[in-house]
């Protein structure tokens, strides 16, 4: 099992200018982190993931580039497929997309222009169409939302095909991973959540005559060096009433390491660690994280 450690930025990061973001990217490359993952929130401080990852691709040679997650409902799948294929090609096949339905907040739904009740159907149709555009010479599609005739998307991505990972923990989301995903990247999850969720994912995949690579089980693990901010406590209370935030957010790098080791015990091997707060010095923070976790990679 190949264990890989990536680093992510949350939706509230202030690393959204050339200087701070560039320093972060350079340090990740120099310290040999596996990957950089950027979250999407139209109404948050984080930079646009695809734009920022293109910036990162131009500064690096080996760092992989992930979205955690990019929202599909509200986007034209032909345009998005072109953007993703271009990023994958220009980065030499280093693009790692994880996609989802978007944050469950009215302001985000309004910003993307898709009603909550329409998001799942939009997602399913868009993802299937994008995969065809990446792999087929010419594509015709007559769906409920998108209609194209004899479209040839070029250039094709380096990865043939691009593996698309999905997030989510609700039973409907887990079944969608099994039906459509190439991997699963949940967040704010306990070890039991990951074990039970993966069982449903693989069961659903088998029911649809699919298999998902057993090494395509990951986890996004948020950590902190001090108390958990009220905004995160409130977020978790709304999404998962009764859950102790400390059960899913390790405090300190020793606790973060212990959590990753526990997750490897249930089969997870691809990790994205995300700080709740931006550090004063990205280089020092990343060096400390790599000192604590680097030997887990193999």
Give an overview in words.
The chain has helices spanning 18-30, 49-59, 77-90, 106-112, 119-135, 171-180, 191-207, 230-239, 253-264, 282-293, and strands spanning 4-9, 35-38, 64-71, 95-100, 139-142, 147-151, 165-166, 183-184, 218-223, 270-275. α1 runs parallel beside α10, α3 crosses α5 and α9 (253-264) crosses α10 (282-293). The chain contains 10 helices and 10 strands. β1, α1 (18-30) and β2 (35-38) form a beta-alpha-beta unit. With 298 residues, it is α/β, with parallel strands linked by helices. The chain has an 8-stranded parallel β-sheet with strand order 8-7-4-3-2-1-10-9. The protein has a two-stranded antiparallel ribbon with strand order 5-6. It has one domain: TIM Barrel (Alpha-Beta Barrel), CATH 3.20.20. The model has no long low-confidence stretch (mean pLDDT 96).
Concise structural overview:
The protein has helices spanning 18-30, 49-59, 77-90, 106-112, 119-135, 171-180, 191-207, 230-239, 253-264, 282-293, and strands at 4-9, 35-38, 64-71, 95-100, 139-142, 147-151, 165-166, 183-184, 218-223, 270-275.
């Amino acid at each position: 099992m190949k264990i890989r450690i990536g680093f992510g930025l949350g939706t509230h990061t202030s690393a959204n200018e050339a200087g701070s973001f560039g320093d972060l990217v350079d340090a990740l490359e120099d310290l040999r982190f596996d990957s950089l993952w950027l979250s999407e929130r139209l109404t948050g401080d984080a930079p646009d993931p695809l734009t920022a990852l293109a910036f990162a691709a131009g500064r690096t040679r080996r760092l992989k580039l992930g979205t955690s997650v990019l929202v599909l409902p509200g986007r034209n799948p032909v345009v998005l497929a072109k953007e993703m294929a271009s990023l994958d090609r220009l980065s030499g096949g280093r693009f790692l997309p994880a996609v989802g339905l978007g944050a469950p907040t009215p302001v985000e739904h309004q910003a993307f222009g898709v009603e909550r009740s329409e998001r799942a159907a939009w997602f399913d149709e868009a993802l299937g169409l994008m995969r065809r555009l990446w792999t087929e010479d010419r594509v015709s599609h007559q769906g409920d939302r998108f209609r194209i005739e004899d479209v040839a998307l070029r250039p094709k991505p380096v990865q043939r095909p691009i593996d698309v990972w999905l997030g989510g923990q609700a039973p409907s989301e887990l079944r969608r991973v099994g039906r459509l995903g190439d991997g699963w990247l949940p967040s704010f999850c306990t070890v039991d959540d990951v074990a039970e969720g993966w069982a449903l994912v693989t069961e659903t995949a088998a029911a649809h005559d699919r298999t998902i690579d057993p090494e395509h089980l990951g986890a996004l693990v948020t950590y902190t060096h001090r108390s958990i901010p009220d905004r995160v406590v409130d977020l978790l209370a709304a999404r998962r009433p009764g859950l102790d935030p400390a059960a899913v957010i390790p405090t300190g790098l020793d606790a973060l390491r212990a959590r990753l080791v526990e997750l490897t015990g249930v089969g997870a091997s691809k990790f994205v660690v995300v700080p709740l707060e931006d550090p004063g010095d990205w280089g020092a923070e990343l060096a400390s994280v790599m000192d604590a976790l680097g030997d887990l990679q193999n």
